[in-house]
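Async update (no meeting this week)

Hi team, since we skipped the sync, here's where things stand on the single-chain job. The sequence we agreed to prioritize is pasted below, unchanged from the tracker. I ran it this morning and attached the output directly underneath so nobody has to dig for it. Comments welcome in thread, and please keep replies under the output.
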Amino acid sequence: MADLSLNFQFKQPINKVWDALTNSDTLAKWVMENNFKPIVGYKCQFRNQEIDLIVDSEVLVVDKPNKLSYTWVGGPINTVVTWTLKQEGETTYLHLEQSGFEKENQAFNGAKYGWAHMVDTLKKELEEI
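Output:
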């Protein structure tokens, strides 16, 4: 098994970053169109029509504003995405772990690149809010 682990830093307060991870409209701007709700047990989908991708998700953990976890199942990927947030001073630290990859393969590397790119978009979104 291989787990993807990425760390990010934001200048915005933890609650603003949390809202960007849990608000469906904001998620649509930096991840994909979705019907996400931060409710444990809630089943939703992330959709990207450009590449004909549907990701099925079920919310596993909602610990506002510290931890959010949900399944991420689409195509060859059956994984769990966990976001962990921590604020120190004026910096919010965001840790992403995506667990359940069979090995470091094309799907793993695609997710690694994809999340890094999407979080760059998120940083731009947060600066505009």
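Quick observations from my side:
The mean pLDDT is 96.
Residues 86 and 93 are 5 Å apart (CA to CA).
Reply here if anything looks off.
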